[in-house]
Each structure stands twice: as C-alpha cells, then as structure tokens.
Amino acid sequence: MHHAVSSLRSALLIGGAVLLAGCAAKDPLSQPAVPLGDFSLGYTIVVADDAKLVPPSRSATAEEWESVLKAALERRFARYEGDKLYHFGVNVDGYALAVPGVPVIASPKSILVVSANVWDDAAGEKLNAEVEQLSVFEDLTGDSVIGTGLTRSKQEQMHDLADNMARRIERWLVENREDWFGFDPEAPAADAPVAPAASGVPAESISQATLGGPETDSAAAN
C-alpha cells in the first residue's frame, strides 16, 4: 500500500504541460468497442476500504468509490459479448479530488490509483501474474486545466475519474487480448455470440483475493 501512495504522490507532482501533452481524446461509449476476442464480463468486484486520500483533496467514502467505479466498468464492458466469462477484481489504492481555493500555481488535478486483476471463470484463476497498478487523471478541458475544485462537484470528479479508469483498464485488456482472450488479428469480424452464464469463480473468492497474493490465489482457485 505504501508503494500505491508513493505512486499517487509522484503522479500529483507532474506539471500541467506534461499532463496536456499526454491527454488522450475521449473514447465515448457510442463508438464501437475495440475487439477483445472471447471476452464477456462476469462479476465486477470493487473494494475501496483501504483507499488512501492524498491531500489536498475532498473526501469520499469507500461506498462512493465502489459504486461509481463498478458502474463505470459495467457500462464500458457490457458492450462485449464474447463466448467466455471473465471477472474483475479492483482495489482502490488512493485518490485525490481537487479542492477549491488552491492557488493556480499549485493547481492540483484529481487522480485515481487502483490495483486490478482479471479472472478466467472457466479456469478459476487470474490471468495476470502480477497485480496491475493503474492511475488516471481527470480530463483536461478549458476550465479544468488549472484544477476542477471550482468547476466540478465531487460527484462529477469521481464520475470522470471512474470513466477514465474503465477506459484505462480496457486499454490494458486490449494490450493482452491475444494471450488472454484468444484474439486473432487476422480473423474476419464476426457477430458476437450470446454471453454465457456465470459458473466457475464465486464472487466472494474474487472479493477476498482482489489483490491476489500467493495464498489468496490458491484459495480462490479451489
């Protein structure tokens, strides 16, 4: 967890020019989903009990983070209807939600840091050997380049961060789609089959092993 908070603090120190240079265009859900092979979403388990607030920041409860992030993940990944089920285990490591009244020179940006695992339902095990830690900033627009403390509510900031994290997790899956989801880049596009029913990995196992050490991996696979 110390590593997670250190990553969060380091990210908050990135200058505004760097953030602008790395800001990606929005990927609206109205656009076609990037192919993910046989992927279809099963459980989405989000845990935020140990999320660390890095000041200056507005405060959010674990329940608020769990609700907004779970909803964002389900909105984005409900578009996929492959013939195998996969589950998400996501732990919210830390966050900062920009506050009003901070001088422009400080201009904090909202940020969210999570640790994520992807589970194969049929195999009953994780696909990623190591927990994947991911971080995202809020979107930068004309009114948010100097921070959103004065221009957005806490709920708007969280919604934006959750959508960006869902998009970031999708990009992580796309990077591994050939190994994890049997994606064939040479295969012609085909109609997506009907998503299967859940069967293999109990949701409680994913919740208990969200961060997935060796002992929890073994317990969840049995």
Give the arrangement of secondary structure elements.
Elements: H1 2-12, H2 16-22, E1 39-47, E2 52-53, H3 62-77, E3 84-96, E4 111-120, E5 125-126, E6 132-137, H4 154-175, H5 177-180, H6 203-208, H7 214-221
Parallel strand pairs: 1-3, 2-3
Antiparallel strand pairs: 3-4, 4-5, 4-6
Describe the structure.
Helix 3 links the parallel strand 2 (52-53) and strand 3. The protein has seven helices and six strands; from the N terminus they run ααββαββββαααα. Strands 1, 2, 3, 4, 5 and 6 form a six-stranded mixed beta sheet that branches. The chain is of the alpha/beta class.
Order of helices and strands: HHEEHEEEEHHHH
- Cα shape: globular
Assign the structural class, choosing from mainly alpha, mainly beta, alpha/beta, alpha+beta, or little secondary structure. alpha/beta
Major sheet size, sense and barrel closure: 6 strands, mixed
State the low-pLDDT regions, or none. 12-25, 213-222
Query: What is the end-to-end distance?
Result: 27 Å
